[in-house]
Design brief:
Largest interface: A-B, 66 and 66 residues
CATH topology of chain A: Arc Repressor Mutant, subunit A
CATH superfamily of chain A: Winged helix-like DNA-binding domain superfamily/Winged helix DNA-binding domain
CATH architecture of chain A: Orthogonal Bundle
Mean pLDDT of chain A: 91
Strand content of chain A: 5-15%
Number of helices of chain A: 7
Distance between the termini of chain A: 37 Å
Low-confidence stretches of chain A: 1-9
Oligomer: homodimer
Structural class of chain A: mainly alpha
DNA sequence: CTTGGAATGTCAACAAGGCTGACGTAATGT
DNA sequence: ACATTACGTCAGCCTTGTTGACATTCCAAG
C-alpha cells in the first residue's frame, strides 16, 4: 500500500513494482486453491477434477472439444480425469442429438453436490478477499486479470459470461 | 466491465461475480506463466526451476528452509530441483558462517543470466497488462491479491519487500 | 563432554497430471 | 465414395509433487 502510486504517476512500472505483482500472483494463487484442495485431499480427486466439474457446471451440455479448449490440456489428459468422473457417477456423457459424434457433458446429482461443495469453499475464500479489499479494488483486480490473458483466453473467458 | 458495480453497491458479491473472479484467476494464471514457460521448454528446466531461481535472485544468501517455506513444497521436492541447478552451475550453495548446518543460496553468473531472461519475459507480460489496465486498476489488483493470501503467505510476501 | 535435537542431504518408491504418438470407430460433410 | 471430424483408448514418458527412512553435521543444554 505504501508505494503503489495510485494514479499520480506515469512511472509506476518499475521492475520492483512488476516483481511484486509477479510474486503477488504466485502467493495469491496458493491461497486461491487452498480451500478446495483441502476438500479434495482424502477423496481421491485432484485439481484437474475440480476444474472439469467447475466448467461442466458452468456450461452444462458442453461438448468435449470446448472443454479441452477451456482447460488447455490434451484430450488424453482430460480423458483420464473425465473417465473417473463418469465411472464414479459424477458426470454424465450424452451423445449429441444434432451431431452424434459429439458427447455433451452434464453433472449428475452427486456431481453437482460435490461441485457445490468445492465451489462454496472457493467462493467463501474469494468473498472474504473481495470484502476485505472493497469494491473499487475488486473492479481493478478484474480489469488487470483480463488484461493478463492472451486474446484467445480472453475470448474463452468472456464467452463463459455470455452463455 | 459492464456489471462490476464499482463502489455504488453493497451487494456486488453475487455468486456470479465471485465465479467470474475464480475463472479470471484461472485464465490469468495461464497467461501469467506462458512467457517463461516458452523459454523453459527446450532447455530442460520447468516452472519449479524458475521459481527457485526467482526467489534466490530476490534474496541472495537465503537458506534452504526459508526457500522451502516460500515455495511451499517438501525439501525432497526442492532438493531435486536445486540439485540440478547446482550441478549445472546456476546456483551456488555456501555453508553458513554463523551456523554451519545452513546452506546459503546464491546465483552464479550463468544463473543470474537465465533468471534475468526469464524474469524479463514475465515482466514484459506483466507490464503490458498493467499498462493496459491503468494505475488505479493495478492498485486494486494488488490489494485483492494480498487479501487472497492467508496470514502466513502474506507474511512471507511482505517480508520479501522489506529485505 | 556427552547427548538430544535441529538442519540438511539422500535414497527409494509412489501418484497426479501433464505430454506425444498411434490407432480405432462412428458420424459427418463434400 | 472418401476425407475429415469428434471422441476414446492404449502405451509410454516427463515433471513435480508426496511419504518414509536414514546418515551426517552441528549447536546447545545438561
Amino acid at each position: 500500500m505504501s508505494d503503489t502510486h495510485t494514479g499520480e504517476s506515469l512511472l509506476f512500472l518499475t521492475d520492483e513494482q512488476l516483481r511484486q505483482g509477479i510474486e503477488g500472483m504466485f502467493f495469491a494463487y496458493r491461497g486461491f486453491t487452498a480451500a478446495p484442495d483441502q476438500i479434495l485431499e482424502g477423496i481421491s480427486y485432484g485439481r484437474a477434477h475440480h476444474r472439469a466439474l467447475h466448467f461442466i457446471s458452468r456450461s452444462p451440455g458442453m461438448n468435449v472439444n470446448r472443454l479441452l479448449a477451456i482447460l488447455g490440456v490434451t484430450k488424453q489428459s482430460l480423458n483420464r480425469v473425465l473417465r473417473t468422473l463418469i465411472d464414479d457417477g459424477l458426470v454424465e456423457s450424452r451423445v449429441g442429438k444434432a451431431d452424434k459424434r459429439e458427447r455433451h457433458l452434464y453433472l449428475t446429482e452427486d456431481g453437482a453436490a460435490l461441485e457445490t461443495q468445492l465451489s462454496e469453499a472457493q467462493r467463501a475464500q474469494m468473498r472474504a478477499a473481495y470484502r476485505k479489499a472493497g469494491p473499487e479494488a475488486v473492479a481493478g483486480f478484474r480489469t488487470v486479470l483480463e488484461a493478463m490473458m492472451d486474446p484467445e483466453l480472453r475470448r474463452l473467458y468472456t464467452a463463459l459470461r455470455e452463455g
